[in-house]
Structure formats: structure tokens, C-alpha cells
Design brief:
Arc Repressor Mutant, subunit A; single chain; 6-stranded parallel beta sheet; globular; about 220 residues; Rossmann fold; 2 domains
């Protein structure tokens, strides 16, 4: 059973989602919050598997709430469900760890599919949003945002760590990397933690940008094998 928490400042939307999603197979509703602070507190209380998060809410917006939840409860998956596709919101939400970003025009079947998708460890992004993300990410990686890493850290990377970096560059989730390399998800998380420590990077987003900017991940991988 997938436990879902709803966070939206509009009562009608909260109630509608509770009724419709609650009737779906393998989905249960953990609770509903009218603002970001309520959402954070309910996550701490009920530990849902997936949070449907609105962006513009009183007291604490969805972006900041996403950041706080992922810092303390990284295993909780978050889908941004909003009417806004502003570039800043999109990037910030994904940067802080959201697994999905959907506009409220999606059908209920699409929303249910998104819940199952992020619960399995994958990402789900509205096609229009995905185009924005790709353009923004490409621009950041090539022009606006350079990630610097000392050679000493690069030289310390093992063959297996280079293989994991390649998968991160390709956009695979921990679960997908584990399947590809025949590891457990826990092993992948441990490797990623070691890689970030060696390269002095903050998170996997920085790692992915660095790998793309470097442009020779496959060359590095080939040299290590």
C-alpha cells in the first residue's frame, strides 16, 4: 500500500484528491495539509511514501517544504502538483529533491501513474516541464554554472565509482543504477556518498552537472577498465 500525503491550500482540491485517490487500489491517504508547515509536520508524524505538493501555499511554500522534508526524510518521494510552470519554481523544486513535477491539468490516471512511478524510484515530469528542465540544465551545465573539482579527488575514484558516475550523468535513479550494476540500492547510496566526499560535491545534481561539463566520463571510464 502506497501512503500518500496531500498538501494544497485549496480545500476543494484536497478533498477531491482524498476521495478519488483513496478509492484507487494500493493507495491510502495519510493526511492532507493546507500549508507547508502542516505538510512538514504531517510527514514527520505519518511518514508517507509520496507527498503531492502544491507550490504556492501560506506559511511555507512548496519549494521550501520540499527542501526541509528531503533534508530530514530523504526516502519520502515528492511530486510537485501545481498550476505554475515558472522556470524558477521548476528548477528549485527539482534541485531540492522532488521526484516529479506535474501541472494540475493532468488526468487522474496520469497522476496515479506518477505516484506509482516515483514510488518505484523513478522520476515523472510533465512533458512541457521536461523540455524546460532539459534546456535549463543544458544552459547551466555549459555556460552559467561551472563545477570545479580538484584533480586529487578525481585520481582517487575507483573503477566502480566511475561506472556509477556514468549512470548518474545519464540520469538514472539509485534503483536503476542498482539494477544495471547488480548492486543493492543501499550499496549505490554508499558509493555515491563516497564519490561526493572524494570530489567535495554537495549532491548528485552537482555530480551530474560536473560529469556533463567534463564531457569525458566515458573516456575516463574506458581508461579505468
Amino acid at each position: 500500500m502506497i501512503k500518500v500525503l496531500i498538501a494544497d491550500d485549496q480545500e476543494l482540491i484536497r478533498q477531491s484528491l482524498q476521495i478519488v485517490l483513496g478509492s484507487r487500489e494500493n493507495i491510502s491517504i495519510s493526511g492532507a495539509a493546507a500549508n507547508g508547515i502542516e505538510a512538514f509536520n504531517l510527514v514527520a508524524k505519518y511518514m508517507p511514501d509520496v507527498v503531492l505538493m502544491d507550490i504556492r501555499m501560506p506559511k511555507m511554500d512548496g519549494v521550501q517544504c520540499t527542501k526541509k522534508i528531503k533534508e530530514l526524510y530523504p526516502e519520502v518521494k515528492i511530486i510537485i502538483l501545481t498550476t505554475f510552470d515558472d522556470d524558477e519554481y521548476v528548477y528549485s523544486a527539482l534541485k531540492y529533491g522532488a521526484s516529479g513535477y506535474l501541472l494540475k491539468g493532468v488526468s487522474m490516471d496520469e497522476l496515479v501513474e506518477a505516484i506509482y512511478t516515483v514510488y518505484s524510484g523513478k522520476a515523472m515530469i510533465n512533458p512541457d516541464i521536461a523540455t524546460k528542465v532539459l534546456k535549463l540544465f543544458s544552459k547551466m551545465a555549459k555556460l552559467d554554472f561551472t563545477i570545479e573539482v580538484f584533480n586529487k579527488g578525481i585520481e582517487q575514484l575507483t573503477k566502480t565509482e566511475w561506472r556509477i558516475i556514468e549512470q548518474v550523468e545519464l540520469g538514472y535513479s539509485n534503483k536503476e543504477i542498482a539494477d544495471i550494476l547488480s548492486f543493492s540500492e543501499g550499496t549505490v547510496r554508499n558509493y555515491l556518498s563516497t564519490i561526493l566526499s572524494k570530489l567535495n560535491l554537495r549532491d548528485r545534481t552537482q555530480l551530474a552537472i560536473w560529469a556533463i561539463q567534463r564531457g569525458v566520463t566515458r573516456m575516463d571510464l574506458k581508461e579505468q577498465l
